[in-house]
Design goal:
Number of strands: 9
Radius of gyration: 33 Å
Helix content: 10-25%
Distance between the termini: 100 Å
Largest sheet: 5 strands, antiparallel
Strand content: 25-35%
Structural class: alpha+beta
Mean pLDDT: 80
Strand order of the largest sheet: 5-4-6-7-8
Number of helices: 4
Number of domains: 2
Oligomer: single chain
Length: about 220
């Protein structure tokens, strides 16, 4: 009796397999599809949204974004960005050797010079309540006189007197008001033959941050 039941079950299983193979389409379930069953879905992070002045994260509401990059070597020129507007850049014909300066006071005025007298006049003529963003390209120290250094120091610079031949230097100062203590305002990098990235030039440096709109 047991043998009969076993033969009957085997025959039924064979018939069921034959029926499924004959009536179910071959491409209904593939091996690849079976392998995908049970796998966890892959979550892909969305592409990061570009922020103003290429910040990694956006400035809080009610703030201006800024980014200042010094020059590097002969080819990489200084860049000054404010609220996503490139005031000074590699494509801008205004970029020159020396200390490049951009003034921000609702409307942006751009200038660059390596002459102390012109730089002194530029800073003195800047209206109260303006920002002055500065970045070196090539050498900004050779023609820098003590009178100019004093004016920049009055704007809040702590490194202007330490600039040496071909030092990379970036700075943001305020005329007529005080900037918040928690923002990046200045950075300097001196030429060092053992560490220079561009032969006789040190690597470029940068500062960036956010400034409350109600200050300007």
């Amino acid at each position: 009796l047991r043998l009969f039941v076993f033969l009957l079950a085997s025959l039924a299983a064979w018939y069921l397999g034959y029926f499924v193979a004959a009536h179910v389409p071959q491409n209904t379930v593939s091996i690849a599809a079976l392998q995908e069953i049970g796998k966890k879905p892959v979550l892909r992070a969305p592409a990061p949204k570009r922020q103003k002045c290429d910040h990694w994260s956006p400035c809080p509401p009610g703030n201006f974004a800024y980014r200042i990059l010094s020059g590097g070597g002969k080819q990489r020129r200084a860049k000054i960005c404010f609220e996503d507007e490139q005031l000074i850049s590699e494509e801008n014909a205004e970029v020159g050797s020396g200390i490049n300066i951009a003034i921000v006071n609702c409307n942006c005025v751009i200038d660059s010079t390596d002459h102390s007298r012109e730089m002194m006049d530029f800073i003195r003529n800047a209206p109260e309540g303006t920002l002055l963003l500065m970045a070196t390209h090539d050498d900004g120290s050779t023609r820098l006189k003590n009178g100019v250094k004093k004016l920049v120091e009055e704007l809040g610079s702590k490194e202007i007197k330490n600039i040496k031949f071909r030092s990379s230097w970036v700075f943001i100062g305020a005329k007529g008001f005080k900037l918040p203590d928690n923002i990046q305002r200045e950075k300097i990098n001196h030429s060092d033959k053992t560490k220079n990235r561009y032969k006789g030039w040190p690597a470029e440096i940068q500062i960036e941050g956010c400034i409350p709109r109600n200050l300007i």
